[in-house]
């Protein structure tokens, strides 16, 4: 009989057997002797040891435990354990922001002389890391049309060590066939890193689709209420240790305990929020598509999405985000300026509905030719659907679309 069976009996609950909703509320919970219901926040930089010998054993790894907040913290560990349980991963490393997660995820896999292949449809900061930062350190990078499997194959070199993609991609919701790209990567010995922030772990599971690592901006759906920054890398625990343990330990992109606590509370309502917001988004996408001011709409659950078949296979719903083209910057600005409920903001996946003009904000640093290559015109608007009443949102959006249609 194991220690857990002695403590908890032969019919002890196994968190791995829980449904996602239970994992989101109960996963990773580690109570103190006080028996608190809400997870405790350990606001401490360091930890005390019973003796010099105990400190020696802790630092050597002989004894388990926390050493310093840059290396780990009990509240952060609860967040990591809960997110890993939801994702179906054996390990998670929480970081200070989504971009810290992307940066560390790639740096840990690549060295000078290595080669990275990435999809061209990326968030502006992600693209900057791929095309500007990594080459400074001797890492070659090739950007491809992520929907073209032959382009991925053709980009492979003998020194290719990693593939990187977003799906759905920011800002036009491009969908990439994750299992097919994973197969190409693994045939060459490369690792596949997938940014799953747009889908969230509720709607898509990249590790089950073949990815080696999945990264999140926990700032988005996981918090989902505009409060804190956070990020995470998930995968096999041994692989995370191999590639990231020392890099995280010595460079210090640590998530704060307070932010970890906020993200823990965000996880409790993640499924409820994402499914409700996705349902509203699907309804609104159909309404927006019918408006005469809209030239084209991008929403994964619609049959007119270029990768609708792949989206239906990989995702449980269309998600909370869409984009649409209004035919030019003046019309896009007229739409945004006419909104009265929806906020103009470059964040997304919030409880509040948010809209933005990507060409002048989130993708401003992306060269115009590269923006146009992914279909991002000056008329495109990205809409993140929140938790407001769908009727109120439809009224606000239709009024704004009318204004866009009247703009010169």
Model description:
The chain is of the alpha/beta class and 408 residues long. It folds into two domains: 12-41 and 72-268, Aspartate Aminotransferase, domain 2, CATH 3.40.640; 270-406, Aspartate Aminotransferase, domain 1. It has helices spanning 3-8, 20-26, 52-60, 74-87, 98-107, 124-136, 149-155, 178-187, 200-203, 219-223, 237-251, 257-268, 270-290, 308-314, 329-338, 368-373, 390-406; strands at 91-95, 115-119, 140-144, 160-166, 191-195, 213-217, 231-235, 296-298, 321-325, 343-344, 354-356, 380-384. It has a seven-stranded mixed beta sheet, with helices on both faces. It is globular and about 75 Å long. Residues 1-7 have low confidence and may be disordered.
What's the gyration radius in Å? Answer: 22 Å
Overall body shape: globular
Q: Average pLDDT value?
A: 96
Major sheet: order of its strands?
1-7-6-5-4-2-3
Say what the CATH topology of the largest domain is.
Aspartate Aminotransferase, domain 2
> Number of helical runs?
17
How would you summarize this macromolecular structure in one to three sentences?
The chain has helices spanning 3-8, 20-26, 52-60, 74-87, 98-107, 124-136, 149-155, 178-187, 200-203, 219-223, 237-251, 257-268, 270-290, 308-314, 329-338, 368-373, 390-406; strands spanning 91-95, 115-119, 140-144, 160-166, 191-195, 213-217, 231-235, 296-298, 321-325, 343-344, 354-356, 380-384. By secondary structure, it is of the alpha/beta class.
